[in-house]
Amino acid sequence: MQYGICNLSIVPIRFEPSDKSELVSQLLYGDHFKILSQQKLWCKIRVAFDGYEGWIDKKQFFEISKAQFKLIDSEPPKYSIDLIEYVQGENKELILIPVGSSLNGLSVLKHTFDGNNIIGLKNKVNIVKTAFLYLNAPYLWGGKTPFGIDCSGFTQIVYRLNGYKLFRDASQQATQGDALSFIEESEPGDLAFFDNDEGQIVHVGIILEDNHIIHAHGHVRIDRLDHTGIYNTERKKHTHKLRVIKKIV
């Protein structure tokens, strides 16, 4: 089995091996992964962080050895914390990186980084502070950055920056943590999940104080939360039906 690491700012992960295929997620700089299979121009990968699988362009990663993969895996995760930063390559070239990029592979890539970083588990109150970094970021299906992000990409990256692992999709994240019976039992930083008419989990957001929620819907925004779901004051209607609240931390 082969291994790789993302050596670019952002790399699309697609559902099928085609540039026209659906964007299902993204690799951020420094994300490492296993290569499951290969075609002429594409590789199917499994991301080390969350086990997510999809296809990436063969031109958009750096191949590493099994030993290098294990080395990166063995180190405490370290992430960039500023909205946008850069790393410097061997030839002094600059590579822009978004917030949440992994810095554990710097030595493998022979890159240097002088910016701010974050490492280790953070207090639960910091989850809300981190979430506000993404306020007004535009919605993008499969996105994980301030330049475009979806609902579960938002919750995953916010938790990641605080040292906690969430799965990639909302339906997967809903299997984690402990369910709460009432909104009143929740704390800022807990996750609220919402389903569709078929009972499928299709949305997730982070609970705030005073019955509010921050979530990615059109853009990362703050709305009211009640026992029915998310109430959009601009549209004067509920936009999402509450299914369950989970305490992860």
Structure description:
This protein has 249 residues and is mainly β. The protein folds into two domains: 2-119, SH3 Domains (SH3 type barrels); 125-247, Alpha-Beta Complex (endopeptidase fold (from Nostoc punctiforme)), CATH 3.90.1720.10. It has five helices and 20 strands. It has helices at 66-74, 106-109, 125-131, 151-160, 170-173, and strands at 2-5, 10-14, 23-28, 32-38, 42-47, 53-57, 62-64, 78-80, 84-88, 94-98, 117-119, 144-145, 148-149, 178-180, 191-195, 201-207, 212-217, 219-225, 229-232, 237-247. The strands form six sheets. The chain has a six-stranded antiparallel beta barrel. Helix 3 crosses helix 4 (151-160). The protein is globular and about 55 Å long. The two termini are 35 Å apart.
Give the SSE map.
Layout: E1 2-5, E2 10-14, E3 23-28, E4 32-38, E5 42-47, E6 53-57, E7 62-64, H1 66-74, E8 78-80, E9 84-88, E10 94-98, H2 106-109, E11 117-119, H3 125-131, E12 144-145, E13 148-149, H4 151-160, H5 170-173, E14 178-180, E15 191-195, E16 201-207, E17 212-217, E18 219-225, E19 229-232, E20 237-247
Antiparallel strand pairs: 1-4, 1-7, 2-3, 4-5, 5-6, 8-11, 9-10, 12-13, 14-20, 15-16, 15-20, 16-17, 17-18, 18-19, 19-20
Helix pairs in contact: 3-4
